Amino acid sequence: MNVEQKMSTLHHLANTILYCVVLAWSYLLMLSVMTMNPWLAGSSVLGCSTGFMIFGVNEKSLPNSQTVEIDNNEKSDTNRSDKVVELEHLK
């Protein structure tokens, strides 16, 4: 395994662990709301809203977000197909 494959594997492992933590936390929040206690339900909504406001992610803060500008004045179909290939490569 080369360094790039190891980093990819570690990145995937970290994402898997974080996914499991978020899933477990979501089920715990769901169970707290299902107790029909309005104070627990309200505190869950308030806590999630506050956490999103403080730590929420938007497109501009992501490191891999890229803005692609397309010139609409070009009339050649070959240039447009090249741009589609470039856009697919960015995904």
Automatic annotation (TrEMBL):
GO terms for cellular component: membrane. Pfam families: Ctr. It is a multi-pass membrane protein. The keyword Membrane applies. The keyword Transport applies. Keywords: Copper, Copper transport, Ion transport, Membrane, Transmembrane, Transmembrane helix, Transport. InterPro entries: Cop_transporter (IPR007274). Residues 72-91 have a biased composition (Basic and acidic residues). Residues 66-91 are annotated as: Disordered. It is found in: Membrane. The chain crosses the membrane at residues 12-33, 39-57. One of its GO terms (molecular function) is copper ion transmembrane transporter activity. Belongs to the copper transporter (Ctr) (TC 1.A.56) family. SLC31A subfamily. This is Copper transport protein. The lineage of its organism: Eukaryota, Metazoa, Chordata, Tunicata, Ascidiacea.
